[in-house]
Amino acid sequence: MKQQSGWTRRSTLALTGAGLATLGTRGLAAGPAPQFEIMAEGIGFSEGPVVMPDGSVLVVDLISANITRVWKGSKEVVKNIGGGPNGAQLGPDGALYVCNNGGAAPDNPTLADPSQPGRVERLDLATGKVERLFDSVSGTPLSAPNDLVFDADGGFWFTDYGKTLAESYSRGGLYYCSADRGEVKAITRNGTGFNGVGLSPDGKTLYFCKYFEGRLMRMNVTGPGEVEMAGERPHVELVGSGLGEAEFDGLAVTAAGNICVGTNHTGGVTTITPDGEVRFFELPERMVTNIAFGGEDMRDAYLTWSTSGRLVRMRWDEPGLKLNFG
User: Fold this and answer.
1) Phi first, then psi: what are they for 183, rounded to 5°?
2) What range defines the domain where residue 286 resides?
3) Can you give the pLDDT at residue 34?
4) Do 310 and 40 form a contact (C-beta atoms < 8 A)?
């Protein structure tokens, strides 16, 4: 099944009464409307696509807690990991590392399960063994780990989204786990809605999304697990914002250094250059939660469509960045 849609350009945002953006002139040049192909359906709340070396794609499901391997036209459950698997990446050891938010409350899927801690887990794809690496940092429990990215040293950065509970909300933050897994430290705590995370091609810039605000932020990386500071706090800069009522979810970086963000509510992918130029590609899915690149030329974009429980493939207009592992 194939469909088409098109690009929207903007540099400055001005909303009309209908909630549409007035287009600017500094946006990236609009390309031909790509087609999309449905790779798999019936996944549940699909998230965290991981393109494997053999060409298959691993997808997690927040509802069933299944990790599913997808080939074109077929899929199989690799493991039920429990809780609420959200983001995933291959590590340097060939295992799948998973950010698990702990899962939803049994009687209300809109709320988190307070009895289940958020954690980061390691799945051995050869044996199916699941190992809980950690569920707290310096004695403070994690809330709802969301997404992660490995650096060239073998350590990984990960976000904690926070949890919506019946009468409260627990905050999250941004963290780093060392290559030997011996140290996990907080970069910043007390954040809300920290979501997708990625690194620039040279590894010197860390990008992360603030979901509710629809903002892409960055920090300058000065070493493994180290960022530029402004006094006692990390120096954080706004890169760009989404169109209209956009909510920013998972992200992937291109070989040229542009950041492609799965965009909810307005439904599509927002691409932001490092100097803040923004374009939006609208798709017929309200919750495009994540994106990953693969294929021989790295121009196959795999998107998770979470409302419809689909994994979709598109040909992108520029190659994605090859991740450090995978």
Assistant:
1) -135, 130
2) 39-315
3) 53
4) yes
Q: Are strands 229-230 and 233-234 parallel, antiparallel or unpaired?
A: antiparallel
Q: Positive or negative, the Cα torsion across 274, 228, 162, 118?
A: positive
Residue among 251, 256, 254, 266 at smallest CA distance from 303: 251
Mean pLDDT over 288-312 rounds to 96
Q: What is the pLDDT, as a whole number, of residue 26?
A: 33
Please name the residues in contact with 283: beta carbons below 8 A apart, sequence gap of 6 or more.
5, 36, 267, 268, 269, 303, 305
Percent of the chain with pLDDT over 70: 90
* Least confident segment among 92-106, 164-178, 258-272: 164-178
CATH of the domain at 132: 2.120.10.30
Minimum mean pLDDT among 103-107, 118-122, 249-253: which range? 103-107
Is there a domain that residue 5 lies in?
no
Residue 231's CB is within 10 A of a number of other CB atoms, namely 6
CB 196 within 8 A of CB 249: yes
Neighbour order of strands in the sheet with 85-90: 85-90, 96-100, 119-123, 130-134
Question: Does residue 249 lie in a domain region?
Answer: yes
